[in-house]
Amino acid sequence: MTGYKQHLITVIGIFIALAMGIFIGSTTSDDIIIRQQREVIQDLEQKNNHLHENYVSLSQELEEFSTSMLMARQLVEQLTEWYLQLNPIQQKVMLVHDGKDFMPAELGSYLMENVIDVQLLLGDVTSKAATLVGRAITDGKEYYLGPLQDNLSFEGEWHAPDIVVLVVGPETNMQFITELGGFMLDKGMPVVAVGKGQRGSLAGLFEHALYSSVSHLDTPHGLYSLAAVLHGQSGHYGHDSVLFPGEAGQ
Question: Where are the alpha helices (DSSP H) in the chain?
Answer without folding.
Answer: 2-86, 109-110, 130-139, 174-186, 220-230
